Amino acid sequence: MSDDPTGTTAATDADGGLQDAIATLDRLRADALAAIADAADTAALNEARVRFTGKRSELTGVQKRMKDLTPDGRKQLGQALNGFRAAFDEAHAVREEELATAALAARLEDERLDLTLPPRRLPPGRPNLLTQVEHEIIDVFIGMGYQVAEGPEAEAGAYNFDLLNIEPDHPARQEMDTIYVAGFDDVVLRTHTSPVQARVMTTQAPPIAVVVPGRTYRADTVDATHSPVFSQVEGLVVGEDITMADLRGTLLSFSRAMFGADRDIRLRPSFFPFTEPSAEVDVSFDEPGGNLGWLEILGAGMVDPNVLSMCGIDPDRYRGFAFGIGIERVAMLRHGVKDIRDFFDADARFLARF
Question: Is residue 207 part of a domain?
């Protein structure tokens, strides 16, 4: 073995390693660009990136040769590596955008709507029968000049009972009839919509003409004609020179609007704590065989002077009348519904009829 004090052999080996590394990079560049161009989807493109630039790629082996080169050789190999990386990244970015654009176009094509086809016909929805009847009742009274008033369903006993002339020992206050709200001394689920009448009279000066629709609650057992939750529309008129004749004329107009122009009504004496005199109101109908029949539809009466006084209205100057209409009752009479539970069971066969 001979010594080479000038380092010529080492330099020659380094130069040979540089040329071999550059040749390898040229081959890798061609293969990588070809693989990128041939990638049919993003998965194939990602596989090409890992194969040519990953930790276990041939490129990593080329980078490790840097330590065996001369400073000038490392500089040349570094430039070649940078050129490879720049060419690879540019080709990869261009192909990635092409694939993304193609994927989006394919998705848009798959999800494209054919606007020339008619849409599927869906059965039209409609309000529940009770809501329909409630709106009809309200429309009748709005046509007479009434306004709509509303109030809370959880009501203070003062409005639900006291201001309506219902005495503290009245049976209606007992829990067998009224639902009390737990945790409150004197709060109930309103047993009628009359508390709104009291609220209106304590905040509004006559003349007053309002209708009050809404849900009410009683401690009733559910059967064909009773429900613990039911709906009412109550009416209140307060003004000067209001008489029982005004009440009868109003209810006659309402009955004919709801049940037919040939209908008649009759008023039978009754009792309600907040009206005096009070009456049950029946509407006429034709029985089989041509006989005239009567059906009860609501309760009404002249507002008790005590109620007017407790609500801050002078009973010597003003008088009024009030009435309460059960929406379920009207709906059952108009449409031949025999069981009140049909309104709440959500049976599609029943709902489709109306």
Answer: yes
Minimal CA–CA distance to 301: which of 270, 325, 326, 328?
270
Q: How far is CA 4 from CA 1, 9, 16, in A?
A: 10, 7, 18
70 Cβ contact partners less than 8 Å away, ≥ 6 residues apart: 11, 14, 15
> Cα(164)–Cα(309) distance, rounded to whole angstroms?
10
In a domain, 86, yes or no: yes
**Angle at which helices 8-38 and 42-53 pack, to 10 degrees?**
180
Q: Which two tokens stand for residue 334?
A: 């108009």
* Total count of domains within the chain: 2
pLDDT category at 19 given cuts 50, 70, 90 is confident
Kindly state whether residues 80 and 168 are assigned to the same domain.
Answer: no
1 is a domain residue: no
> Alpha-carbon distance 164 to 311, whole Å?
9
Residue 345 placed within a domain: yes
Predicted local confidence at residue 179, as pLDDT: 92
Are residue 41 and residue 157 in the same domain, yes or no?
A: no
Distance CA 228, CA 221 (A): 7
Taking only the tens place, the pLDDT of each residue in 165-178 is 998 888 888 877 89
The CATH number covering residue 199 comes to 3.30.930.10
Parent domain of 91: 9-110
Percent of the chain past pLDDT 70, that is, above it, reads 94
302 bridge partner residues: 321
Assess whether 197 and 168 both reside in one domain. Answer: yes
User: Which of these three, 110, 140, 162, is where a domain ends?
Assistant: 110
Report the alpha-carbon angle 36-41-43, nearest 5.
Answer: 85
Rounded CA-CA distance 239/327 in Å is 26
Is residue 144 within 8 A of residue 253, CB to CB? The reply is yes
What 75-81 contacts at long range (C-beta under 8 Å, 24+ apart), as own/partner pairs, is 76/18, 76/22, 77/18, 77/21, 77/22, 80/21, 80/22, 80/25, 81/25
